[in-house]
Design a protein that fits this description.
Number of strands: 12
Largest sheet: 5 strands, antiparallel
Distance between the termini: 118 Å
Number of domains: 4
Structural class: alpha+beta
Shape: flat
Radius of gyration: 40 Å
Strand content: 15-25%
Helix content: 25-40%
Length: 409
């Protein structure tokens, strides 16, 4: 999700825009919008739209009015109006596309009713904003400790400081209603700031935190997905997926949003297929549908008394049999309509590189250890025999020394 200008240079500093984490081209921000009207001039009889879209932490966006006609471009840091004080954000869109975005989000496009955009942020505003953002991780840890101490069944997922550091917004998730009146008092005493609690859903929490999905890519909700539709288990049934919650659930603990991506295609394709409860009547018996492959247009049927013996039929043959049954007639059997599959006996694997056998680990190990054990077991015996021989020779010498010598003749 980064543009090429954010790559590191030879000295370790970011090259390109050199904004040190605050992208100046808006190419690194998630949920960004491409201004395709930027190279087009406004007609002479029209005035430029004064609405501006500003992004805050974690993709939160709001619309403001540029009543002073400031020359703004994407990536500018601006000070905007807040409930009390001011907030700091980054401009993500200007011009006529802001009106289109407001209509898309079903907001009133009248710019005069929008909150005010004060000015471009000064260096002092940016310093206060950065210091406040540096405190967010520590505040989040301390807030979780306080919530656990008070015994509240909630999870504080994120913390956001207002641009002027006068207010702290705590984002939390909870399955039940939480009475956090005592929690707000504790937060106000601890952090010396105004407190605002915002409950978010589990999908919104995953979108704010981000991560990598089971597909190996970044989460859709944190990169491009803006609206969260309800996902039902019927979407998995239409796509013939196993109802395994461990595979169908995402990082948010809910059903994956991608189950809805191809659902319309499956529904349109399944409209040409017969329903699963349709039975084929033959003279040999009644056949029930066991499996459907919508990609290849194949169906597998089996007789009620022979459930283990499946017959593969094409969609056209099935519709032909159903049309015959609707006329009150029956076909002889399914064997006359099934597809004759040819088994390919080509070799699937050939040892062309001289690879070792796949069962080489199944062979018993060589008896090298046994040989070593035998050698080690022989050593003490040999040592004992050498000691015995040495003691025998020593005793012989001692006996010969003690024998009386024969006198000389």
């Amino acid at each position: 999700m980064g543009c090429t200008s954010c790559a590191s240079g030879a000295d370790g500093q970011p090259k390109g825009c050199k904004n040190n984490g605050t992208c100046g081209t808006d190419g690194c921000n998630k949920l960004t919008v491409f201004d395709w009207l930027s190279n087009m001039s406004i007609p002479a009889n029209m005035t430029p739209y004064t609405g501006v879209e500003v992004r805050f932490k974690n993709g939160r966006k709001q619309f403001f009015q540029n009543h002073e006609d400031l020359s703004l471009s994407i990536g500018d840091i601006v000070a905007t109006q807040a409930e009390s004080g001011h907030d700091i954000g980054i401009v993500t869109l200007t011009g006529e596309l802001v009106r289109v975005q407001m209509k898309k989000k079903k907001q009133n496009p009248d710019a005069t009713q929008l909150p005010t955009l004060y000015r471009k942020a000064t260096q002092k505003d940016i310093d206060i904003w950065q210091k406040a953002r540096d405190r967010e991780a520590d505040v989040q840890k301390r807030s979780r400790v306080i919530a656990i101490r008070l015994g509240l069944r909630m999870k504080i997922s994120d913390v956001e400081f207002q641009g002027d550091a006068s207010k702290v917004i705590f984002y939390y998730t909870a399955e039940e209603r939480v009475d956090f009146r005592e929690l707000i008092k504790e937060f106000a005493r601890t952090f010396n700031s105004r407190i605002e609690m915002k409950q978010v859903g589990f999908r919104q929490e995953a979108a704010r935190l981000g991560g990598i999905g089971s597909c190996g890519r970044e989460l859709c909700c944190s990169t491009w997905l803006t609206d969260f539709r309800s996902v039902n288990t019927s979407a998995a049934r239409y796509q013939q997926l196993s109802l395994n919650p461990q595979k169908l659930a995402g990082q948010c603990g809910k059903l994956k949003c991608c189950l809805n991506f191809e659902l319309d295609t499956y529904i349109d394709t399944l409209a040409n297929f017969p329903k699963n409860d349709v039975k084929l009547k033959t003279k040999k018996g009644t056949a029930i549908c066991q499996k459907t492959d919508i990609f290849k247009g194949l169906l597998w049927f089996a007789y009620e008394k022979e459930a283990m013996n499946w017959h593969e039929l094409t969609l056209e043959r099935v519709h032909e049999i159903i049309a015959i049954n609707k006329k009150g007639n029956t076909v002889a059997n399914l064997e006359d309509y099934k597809i004759e599959t040819k088994v390919d006996h080509t070799e699937l694997f050939s040892n062309v590189v001289g690879q070792d056998s796949l069962t080489r680990f199944d062979r018993p190990k060589t008896s090298q250890r046994r040989k070593k054990k035998k050698r080690n077991s022989r050593k003490p015996i040999a040592a004992a025999s050498s000691k015995a021989n040495h003691s025998n020779t020593r005793n012989k010498k001692r006996n010969n020394r003690n024998k009386p010598r024969n006198p000389r003749k």
